[in-house]
Amino acid sequence: MWMTRQRNDSKPYARSATVMYGRDDMRVMMLGVNWRPRKNWVVKPQFMLVRNISAVAGYAFEKNEYSVSIKREFR
Fold first, then answer.
1. 8 Cβ partners below 8 Å, 6+ apart?
2. What's the pTM?
3. Are 68 and 41 within 8 A, CB to CB?
4. Would you put residue 58 in left (φ > 0), alpha (ψ -120 to 50) or beta?
5. Contact 48, 32 (CB under 8 A)
6. Are 5 and 26 in contact (CB under 8 A)?
7. Cα torsion through 21, 25, 26, 29, rounded to 10
8. CA distances (Å), 71 to each of 40, 59, 66, in order?
9. 3: pLDDT confidence band, cut at 50, 70 and 90?
10. Which tens digits make up the pLDDT trace of 4-53?
């Protein structure tokens, strides 16, 4: 999955005393795989990268996240 989002402040100095109109560009990339090691079991590893580029220094960040979920189906 790939997602992008833009945020522009509608009022001057809404989030900062030094930046008149703040602007954020956020990008998210996710990659995941489903694996069935046995008939009733599903393993889902997933990687996510989030990057927020902001004109306001306190709002800029980058985050990497990795998770694994294990599910058993009862029938």
1. 21, 22, 23
2. 0.72
3. no
4. alpha
5. no
6. yes
7. 180
8. 8, 36, 17
9. very high
10. 999 999 999 998 888 999 999 999 999 999 999 999 999 999 999 999 99
Closest by CA position to 47, among listed 25, 28, 31, 23: 31
Cα R_g (the chain), whole angstroms: 19
The length of the chain, given as a count of residues: 75
Among 70, 74, 67, 3, smallest CA distance to 43 is for 70
Q: Which amino acid is at 47?
A: F
Give the separation between CA 61 and CA 39, rounded to whole angstroms.
41
